[in-house]
Amino acid sequence: MSDDSDAEPQRSVPTRRRSPGGAPTIYDIAELTGVNPSTVSRALGKPGRVSAKTEAKIRAAAAQLNFRVNPMARALPTGRTHTLALIVADITNPLFFRLVRGAELAATGAGYALVIAESQESGDAEADVIEQIMPSVDGIVLATTRLSPERIAEIASRKPLVVVNREVVGVTAVVPGVERGTQALVSHLYEMGHRSIAYLSGPVTSWMSERRWTIILEAAEALGIAAVEIGPASPTLSGGREALRRVIASRATAVVAFNDLMAMGLMQAAAEAAVVVPDELSVAGFDDIFGSELISPALTTVRAPLVEMGQRAVVGVLAAVSSEDDAVSEDMPALTTELIVRGSTGHAPGGPFSS
Amino acid sequence: MSDDSDAEPQRSVPTRRRSPGGAPTIYDIAELTGVNPSTVSRALGKPGRVSAKTEAKIRAAAAQLNFRVNPMARALPTGRTHTLALIVADITNPLFFRLVRGAELAATGAGYALVIAESQESGDAEADVIEQIMPSVDGIVLATTRLSPERIAEIASRKPLVVVNREVVGVTAVVPGVERGTQALVSHLYEMGHRSIAYLSGPVTSWMSERRWTIILEAAEALGIAAVEIGPASPTLSGGREALRRVIASRATAVVAFNDLMAMGLMQAAAEAAVVVPDELSVAGFDDIFGSELISPALTTVRAPLVEMGQRAVVGVLAAVSSEDDAVSEDMPALTTELIVRGSTGHAPGGPFSS
DNA sequence: CTGAAAGCGCTTACAG
DNA sequence: CTGAAAGCGCTTACAG
Asked: Which residue range or ranges hold the HTH lacI-type domain (chains A, B) (predicted)?
């Protein structure tokens, strides 16, 4: 009686998909193994919640079907997307490469995907980008400079957030100790005979630029030498280039730029203006980005542990994500900075060692 | 009778959330405006499907509640995540900065998020990463070198995919025309008196490395000069450094590296070995990455339009995503490469112009 | 240990 | 133009 036109309506078995998207679901596995979908879910989730035998069957079926849990479907009931956002100001700034790599490593290692978004050095864009990405992620690493502390605190109240290279009250921060490297830099310049140092600052909104200047100022005061702040300027090659004139006018014999990019711009402009580095002007930067070693003379810089900073920022976010506890206590050893002396700094002109 | 212990059980009104996550939902808007949630969904989706009046009310309420559609929830019924993946081999290779920026621009401009994943120059990792990210994205841009054409074609059969800097039958590719810049480079070297050129190749699996070598070989043959391939080598600074010995041994007077990073490594090693560039050895690379201009002497290179390539790759994926049509026809003007002559190439030693 | 049910927040035929 | 319902693929109390 295999008659298709049987009067009796076929019992409507709720044949769950084999979805058009093609991807197998837990229903396929359930069908294949003869268990309930919820059992499949349990077996594939935390182990030990299902008999070893059933679990083995289910895992085998999952493997056979090449099953992957649908992250979207999982995110809905759990509220967990297993995705983190890293917001940077400018993707093309080499500073971010190592930071991104560190964050990537830590995120991937924990089974999280990392969405990288760029705020294009604009405060409004920054806020928009964050607002837009927020619902898709479990937490955020913020490595930008334009947002106000109030906005940041507000975002932190909504999602786990870690800021990099700045401090905001009540928000977890990953900031290397700048003192060590920076003081070493000023001492180094002092020993080379410099008695007047210019600091070329970055964006006004940059907490880190402010911080670096403060330390330079204090170190200069302690040594009894002159220090002057020039800027603010764009934290880019051109920001550095455009500042050369003011640096020269300051009569400082050494200039420390907010970052390596600016320092390099300064050196390029100096070369074009036939100002010899370091004989006539010593130049130093911060971060030790790719290229610092390549430029000629190679750039003296205060190196930051960027890869580790990226990793740590992600670890911090993840800790907040899982503990759901707002109180994120940090017990990790302090991150610090280190002076790398290269050819761009030398004896002060007119001093006892000058040629 | 406001007695809590009222015997009559309270009618369980299905009070829809005001979710713990805090984010407002379309149910909140529906409640606030007195319409059905489905109407809210329609009003906020494609316009014109709801009366202007209702839509206005709904939009006002949405704005008031600061509503953002939950991308996960939307992805489930639609299958669209509004997220794209960009897979790169090595995030710290400056080559990718401009590519990433272009991709970012195009994606963000289209309302898509971009997930960046790194495959760490390993074929297995590459496959894993892709497999893992697949369910979360609507399409993929692949800028890696390790995957076999078969694997790539297989992936392309499952999701919209665009490959960058390589060609795979049946898969949309964004590849700049290498001929122009490369031929110009060989001509330039020829005119400088070079009669023997070495090509330092990248990974064996690199389609683009092969392609560049082919063109150099053909150009050299056409000019009647010698060309030799050295390698394969790692597409990194150290890959370049380690190859110097073999380059010298080849007696070629000019070396063209697979990419700028390798060319720079070669120059660093040359400097350490007191081999003067370009007087004793001319060096050139590909891509014109950040740093090429900074190294001394500055690097002669064949520049690729990386930002535009990134944009175009995303546009290509998006086209496939929306047309759902496998036949992606490309009508865009060809992308091309351009020779940038800088200081690292000069007259061949021993030639009529040599010092 | 396992099944049945409800729900995550949205979309989309299906009626009207 | 709008409402009611079903469903996307998963998770997780609730029973047993």
From this structure: 24-78
